[in-house]
């Protein structure tokens, strides 16, 4: 059973979100996603300053067997990307909820969050 | 029986299973305006006997001429061993095979090809080939736009001294994808791109600068100055190069302070015959940080479970069978056979042999241009050194002169009047290592005669 921290929100496309004290949102991929992808060899992170819509592809993670888009879970603006992934993509495998974060987003005024899942609901999607 | 995997019964059964009456219905989502009902100008099918005869007749039209045309495709001597080996059953395929890793010999050959192209261009990595030099330049431009994320304009500066066919193909392939190709004018005296010509873009966002070396006129661009200008403003540099010339010239990877980022070009000079215009192959090489933006196959060297050396397709996540519509390109390895020939050609010649071929080209074209420019009514269009071709200006229209030369069995060069009308009656002439002193003397005499006759024919009757 994969690790699904209860304090995070999730998407059906396996991104996780964490609301930070400063109002920004940190985004990564779930433990389940990194396990399914296998050894990650490359991450293409988005540029800071780019505005994104919920559901918009804004990063790519590439493993030895697949390349997958990472979708923004909310409307907002990218304010930071995890540059460490450029030389250490394996952080996504070893610490998906910590050092392996992908990007930080400043949410738009009224972020649409109703489509986001809590840990239980996300765990349920993995059962399906 | 032809190789058609589905019988009519199979097709009917499959359509019934999905509840569709006719195959055409599967394409209903394509708007009618985009469909072509019939192809105009395509004649009725011919049988094998008729088509063989037709092709023999057409091939004969191309044979038996003394060729002085370059302009992107070059007649070089191809050692007999090249195609003897290339057409062996083990190699005789245009593609990387399915289950590529089961064909270690093919993968090793591609790996050797990539290694040689990387060494020749001074780049870190090469792909397994593209269609031709023109499509390689288009792919390089698309690659540059993907890679240069700091640049937002999609503006690619292309000197007018870049092969005009490449410029047209690049616009066709990449123009619809948001790229803007802007033309950099050349110096009328030297036929090269002066660094000053770039100044008008000093304060503009530029995604990449293309530099062809030697350029379409055969002359040498100041690649160091052009490269440094581009790098200083954050633009990528795309080198379009002749692989044979690289045996003598500075490789793109060493241009200027930082070198070019991408090198591409036409691979035909490396062991592929002119054969009426194709098939040829394009090469594409780049620096390591750009490799994920490079289209096409890449073969890597690795070790198996027992520690033995082996070869495998690598970085496949960029490719269409994995990334589907988000792949870097639809390119695979369909020019594999040409690449096989090129690899064998380069292996047979070696670095020294290739340098001797290049040196002979320089020598012979200098002799050709020197002789032709001594004829009354003929002069060089540009000053400065050149590789294996150069531009002549004549005192009358080039077309009729080329026709008169063709009647004497001489293909006299490439008429520039369509692509470069500003040059007047301009002719691009080429001599590779295959043109002997006698060949050049034959052309010299023929052009002399043809020009004299043209002068006589035009002289008013009263003076005759």
Describe this structure in words.
- The complex is a heterodimer of chains A (128) and B (464).
- Chain A is built from 4 helices and 9 strands, in the order βββαβββββααβα.
- By secondary structure, chain A is of the alpha+beta class.
- Chain A has a single domain, classed as OB fold (Dihydrolipoamide Acetyltransferase, E2P) (Beta Barrel).
- Chain A is globular.
- The two termini of chain A are 14 Å apart.
- The mean pLDDT of chain A is 91.
- Chain B has 2 domains: 80-344, Type I PLP-dependent aspartate aminotransferase-like (Major domain) (Aspartate Aminotransferase, domain 2); 351-456, Aspartate Aminotransferase, domain 1 (Alpha-Beta Complex), CATH 3.90.1150.
- Chain B is of the alpha/beta class and 464 residues long.
- The chains are: A alpha+beta (128), B alpha/beta (464).
- At the A-B interface, strand 4 of A face loops of B.
CATH architectural type of the largest domain in chain B? 3-Layer(aba) Sandwich
The stretches of 5 or more residues of chain B where confidence is low (pLDDT under 50) are none
Strand content of chain B: 5-15%
Q: Considering the protein shown, what is the CATH homologous superfamily of chain A?
A: RNA polymerase II/Efflux pump adaptor protein, barrel-sandwich hybrid domain
Domain count of chain A, please report it: 1
- Characterize the biggest β-sheet of chain A: 6 strands, antiparallel
Evaluate the radius of gyration of chain A. 13 Å
How many structurally independent domains of chain B? 2
The CA-CA distance between the termini of chain B, in Å, is 70 Å
Classified in CATH, the superfamily of the largest domain in chain B is: Type I PLP-dependent aspartate aminotransferase-like (Major domain)
Instruction: Name the CATH class of the largest domain in chain B.
Output: Alpha Beta
Q: What average pLDDT do the residues of chain B reach?
A: 93
